[in-house]
Amino acid sequence: MAEKPDLPPLREVIARHGLSASKALGQNFLLDEQQLDRIAAIAGDLGGAAVYEVGPGPGGLTRALLRAGAHVWAVERDRRCVPALAELAEAFPEKLKIIEGDAMKLDAGGEIGRSFHIVANLPYNVGTTLFTRWLSATDWPPDWLSLTLMFQKEVAERIVAKPGSAAYGRLSVLSQWRSSAVLAMKVHRSAFTPPPKVMSAIVHIRPEEQPGGVEVGMIEQLTAAAFGKRRKMLRQSLKGTSGAVEALTKAGIDPQRRAETVTIDEWVNLARALRS
Length: 276
Prior knowledge:
There is one protein chain. This protein has two domains: 10-207, 3-Layer(aba) Sandwich (Rossmann fold); 216-275, rRNA adenine dimethylase, C-terminal domain (Helicase, Ruva Protein, domain 3, Orthogonal Bundle), CATH 1.10.8. It has twelve helices and nine strands. It has helices at 10-16, 33-42, 60-67, 82-91, 108-112, 127-135, 153-160, 170-176, 216-228, 234-237, 244-250, 264-275; strands spanning 29-30, 50-54, 71-76, 96-100, 116-121, 144-152, 179-187, 192-193, 200-207.
């Protein structure tokens, strides 16, 4: 096994390159290397694995992934951070590819060309959009093998929420109808520089087999309508979706129930009934 390089402290790297977190880019730098190693470990054994990282900043999580043996494709739109990342690329030869660009405009699978894990402290301003895009792939299973992502704690709780809870909603269904989702780790706001106003948490998601006879577009359409008017009965919130009220009866779901009481399996059955 190759000896791991001796890297300077992250604070020293940030100071030397004159970096500061950009509010406009949703940046908050996590500097605790023990926590960063714990986050990298959530994805499992990364020895020789391909990892796609969005928003590496000065490279804190990147170095933890490289220490874990991963080959990392790091997408960074903030050019100020590229020199710091270039130093990491030199320290880990042929292990880190730096992609200058906007992750919102890139195809991860096209960049990497093989199955990969996604591990990232996602920028707050684009995190949920990227996440839903990765979950909404028409082809399933997707190119990615797992998602290990940091979100605001409230968003993470919505992702893993169960029916009947206040946090359960459209994001919960999208995350769980053909994937497993767990809240793997909480991160206190004080661990960041600068500290954000909210707490953070890591979610870990693995794709599972997609239920037959169901399309992601139908799941998205139904949950958007139902949770968009979550305080109304399903017969009211879904009446704008052609055939949905009739499909409720066919799926054995009481039209007087509300969206937050409908289980993942029931959403799947409803989508299947509506399609048929």
